[in-house]
């Protein structure tokens, strides 16, 4: 490993990112891991379901954070039956940004423009074909790059 390259903490959303292209992100997470980076899955939840989905898809990650479980542990989830629940919208929309700030995540890759406005951490808006870094408008074209190449491109843009 190149000693001049810093180890990155990469946040990835599950619903709308990983689950939209499981094979691509399996290889992407594998490539991140091989280069010593840490993958943080930051998603809505619930944790038990996402954990099963990640295991089935063979996604390598270090930490799994789910908004639902975080606020449920704080008693801030209102269960409404039949699997429906309610969490304050502002709490929901800011949870990933707060997590990234407090855990020094280097970038969050997510599909929600709504969440992006709360981030001070670099935020990469995933559109299916590419990832647009909102802070500097640089694009990582996932339709052209292999997952391994995308990791190298991400390293270049973040270092």
Descriptive overview:
The chain has 159 residues and is of the alpha/beta class. The chain is 38% helix and 21% strand. The protein has 6 helices and 9 strands, in the order βαβαβαββαβαβββα. The strands form 2 sheets. It has a 7-stranded mixed sheet with strand order 3-2-1-6-7-8-9, sandwiched between helices. A two-stranded antiparallel sheet has the order 4-5. A hairpin with a 5-residue loop joins strand 4 (78-79) and strand 5 (85-86). Helix 1 crosses helix 6 (147-158).
Task: Summarize the model shown.
This protein has six helices and nine strands; from the N terminus they run βαβαβαββαβαβββα.
Secondary structure layout plus pairing:
Elements: E1 9-12, H1 22-34, E2 38-43, H2 47-57, E3 63-66, H3 67-73, E4 78-79, E5 85-86, H4 89-102, E6 107-110, H5 113-116, E7 123-126, E8 130-133, E9 138-141, H6 147-158
Parallel strand pairs: 1-2, 1-6, 2-3, 6-7
Antiparallel strand pairs: 4-5, 7-8, 8-9
Helix pairs in contact: 1-6
